[in-house]
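Database export, one record per block. Field names are fixed; values are copied verbatim from the stored entry.
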Amino acid sequence: MSTATIERSRTAHHGATAGAVVGRQLFVLGGSRSAYDHRGDVRTVGLDGTGVTDGVFASVPTVRGNLVAEAIGSQIVTIGGLVASKEGAADLNTPCDAVEVLDTTSGAWRRAAPLPQARVKPGVATCGGMVYALSGRSGDTDARTVYGYDVELDRWFDVAELPYGARHGAACRFGDRVYFAGGGSISPGSKVVRSSMLRFEPATNQVVALRDMPGARTGHSMVALGDSIYVLGGMDPEKRPCTSVLRYDVARDSWSVAGELGSPRVVFACGVVNDVVLLAGGWRRMLKESNETVEEFAPRSG
């Protein structure tokens, strides 16, 4: 397995961003310039015959970092995250239950039913017309809950529990199932970065443990492409940003290394456009230096 990567300089992207793909565009939403300086920017990154293109949409109504986003049709559902008022404030890293939906056709935002409980950086994926939010930070610890959101009903459901809770894990849909990998589990006196890979089955609300990743990581992204799932970037247990890309063979329940990113990224926007993985923003160094580039990652055999 080899890869082609192209990294392009940009100046508009932040750390702690969220990403969702509609059509041929990756929407890059929200994020942070520092631990307290959250942003509501919404920018698009696309691919055409000349390369990467840029665009701008109306800002996220509730400015927050470490939110997550998922597309369903032409709408993008943004979920949870951190809100802060100012540097040094007591609510510097307050989890929120905000859910706001962007209609990418009109550019209008609407408020949706809030999360049943505030969450920071759950894994998120759409499957069978439902948006699922898996785990995430809740207060000082990490919840095991899997919530399902019905867009038509504007209603959340408590559908399952994971074997552990983790913030900054990543999820994606493959077929009619949702996969969730990694993340950091933090509780008083304990901090663990996970290497686990789990499969959530919406038809039965069952969770199945699969083969672990070759190494633990958190703050990464995960996408499905072809017959595989790819885990990109993130941070290892020593708090070192990663550039490696891991490939999970779904049929064989096995892992391999698929390549390297051009630069490290932690908590960034990511999605598949025209069989190319686009990555934007994130942290080069956690809470200190954002990655202001856009990168194309194209896995291929040969």
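Remark 1: Residues 122 and 136 are 4 Å apart (CA to CA).
Remark 2: The chain is about 0% helix and 50% strand.
End of record.
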